Amino acid sequence: MDIPPKYSVSEVMGFLKGKLALRLFEKYEHLGHRYWGRHLWSRGYCVSTIGLDEDKIRKYVKWQEQQDKKELLDNAPHQRIFYVEKDGEVKQARGQRRKRAVSRDAKFILNISELNGDEVVLDPFAGIGGLVIECLSRGFKVFASDLDPVVRPGLAHVTNNRCTLADARKLPFRDGTFDVIITEPPFSTRYRQSVMDSLPELCRMIKPNGKIVLFIAQDMYDCITDYMAKAGFHLVRDFTLRRNDKLISHVLRFEHSRAYCIGG
Ligand SMILES: C[S@@+](CC[C@H](N)C(=O)[O-])C[C@H]1O[C@@H](n2cnc3c(N)ncnc32)[C@H](O)[C@@H]1O
């Protein structure tokens, strides 16, 4: 493949990987199960200006596989260190299983969000930062927020203090602050009403042509999609993901209908 000099290799590879992953997930639904939460593609790519032989390519693929495994392990919620507040003290904790965290799933969610890197992102249900960390690793400017004071020090640490302790139903940001909201609200049905009550806030804070990407439990699908449609948001992507027969969830990407109509 030839790449004209006005594009960088990384730009072209990012574009190709993003578009191809989406096409494949749409066409072959089972990939969504198999690659539940995974990057379909590795993070890297192999490029040479003087040519590559088969041996070099094989070595690269092997090396990249090892890198991927290491990265997933280092970022796994039960592995990575996160600062928490307990009894008025900040402590290092490993293995925050209490919160559903999505180090693998985050890659998938970010892929289908199709960001170009200039966007300002908010995660208002940030938990122990699975989505936030993935956004930061891709170079996005991210703000995190969560209601739980326990996770505040950890969020402050990973976001370099771009975080706040706040209820997603009333957030301290002006209208139209964010290009993208990517978030995983609580799955449990006891939070259903508060998740629903947070939707007007999310719609308020998004820029007119912004995106809202929600990773939600199956049983909140109807009420959330109904609300978003009434609020003028178009459902642009809808992926059903299954971990097992009991846990079915959706990754939904909404865009404002007006922007969607004008943009095509
Ligand atoms: C499913 S977890 C998010 C996990 C996160 N994506 C991660 O990778 O760690 C949901 C989070 O929502 C928070 N939460 C629940 N109700 C909230 C509310 N009304 N406002 C803000 N955060 C809330 C919980 O404290 C929890 O951390």
Describe the secondary structure blueprint for this structure:
Elements lengths: L8 H19 L1 H6 L19 H22 L5 E6 L2 E6 L10 H9 L6 E4 L6 H8 L3 E6 L5 H8 L3 E3 L12 E6 L8 H14 E12 L3 H10 L2 E10 L5 E9 H7 L1
Helix pairs in contact: 4-5
S-adenosylmethionine binds next to helix 5.
What is the CA-atom radius of gyration, in angstroms? 19 Å
User: CATH class of the largest domain, anyone?
Assistant: Alpha Beta
Strands in their spatial order, largest beta sheet: 5-4-3-6-7-9-8
Q: Please describe the biggest sheet, giving its number of strands, its sense, and whether it closes into a barrel.
A: 7 strands, mixed
What ligands does this structure carry? S-adenosylmethionine
Low-confidence stretches: none
Examine the coordinates and then state which fold CATH places here, giving the name of the CATH topology of the largest domain.
Rossmann fold
* Helix fraction by DSSP (H/I, runs of at least 4): 25-40%
The number of helical elements comes to 9
Q: Examine the secondary-structure arrangement and name the CATH architecture of the largest domain.
A: 3-Layer(aba) Sandwich
| Shape label | globular
Explained architecture:
This protein has 264 residues and is an alpha/beta fold. Helices cover 39% and strands 23% of the residues. It has a seven-stranded mixed sheet, sandwiched between helices. Strands 1-2 form a two-stranded antiparallel sheet. Strand 3 (120-123), helix 5 and strand 4 form a beta-alpha-beta unit. It is globular. The mean pLDDT is 83. The structure holds S-adenosylmethionine. S-adenosylmethionine binds next to helix 5.
